[in-house]
Specification:
Elements lengths: L4 H8 L3 H8 L2 H31 L6 H16 L4 H15 L4 H25 L5 H28 L9 H17 L11
């Protein structure tokens, strides 16, 4: 909130008047930055999801294939030529979601909700016996695993003492898909899970 459009343009070394002309507000500038990245990633996600559904030739796509369609595009972007930029965008997105402003809800509604609806439908078909409440808890944690991995993957290097290869995005993807798929298939809370 305390960062002004003037602060941003000064730090970026660009003309304030030009940014004002094109975006008018700081919120519009942030929305444009996020939309540019989100729309690329989400287009690829939907393409992969459609392919996964077509290959299934039934109403039940494989859970791992749906998860890969969801995770692969952002991970590929995050491991691309400019990993630092991808991490910055992910952190910005995380910060934005912590703000209770209407324009942030607009970002979700325009750039994420239509994609989320398609993935929720495909995941539900992959997990037909999972009750809604369990499904949405597990989905929430699965999304959290992706966000944490994209922002804090470097922490795994320290935690594992270098034993985990965090530079191989395919390995990261396989580990994440396997972990989240197991979480979706785990026993339901109350069925043998004792936390006390």
């Amino acid at each position: 909130d305390a960062t002004s459009l003037r602060d941003i343009t000064s730090d970026a070394g660009v003309n304030l008047a030009a940014v004002n002309y094109h975006f008018q507000t700081k919120e519009s500038l942030i929305t444009a930055v996020l939309a540019r990245r989100l729309d690329e990633v989400n287009a690829r996600r939907l393409e992969m999801l459609e392919d996964c559904i077509q290959r299934a030739r039934s109403a039940t796509p494989r859970l791992e294939a749906v998860l890969e369609a969801f995770y692969r595009p952002p991970l590929e972007a995050g491991f691309g030529e400019n990993r630092e930029l991808a991490v910055s965008i992910t952190r910005l997105l995380g910060r934005v979601y912590g703000e209770p402003e209407r324009w942030i809800e607009d970002i979700y509604e325009q750039h994420l909700e239509p994609v989320a609806e398609r993935f929720v439908a495909a995941l539900r078909r992959s997990l037909p016996g999972l009750p809604d409440q369990e499904f949405f808890w597990r989905l929430h944690f699965g999304i959290g695993a992706m966000a944490h991995t994209m922002i804090h993957l470097h922490m795994l290097d320290r935690l594992s003492g270098g034993r985990c290869n965090t530079n191989d995005f395919r390995l990261v993807l396989r580990q994440m898909v396997a972990f989240v798929a197991a979480g979706f298939r785990a026993a339901m809370v109350g069925e043998g899970v004792n936390l006390s």
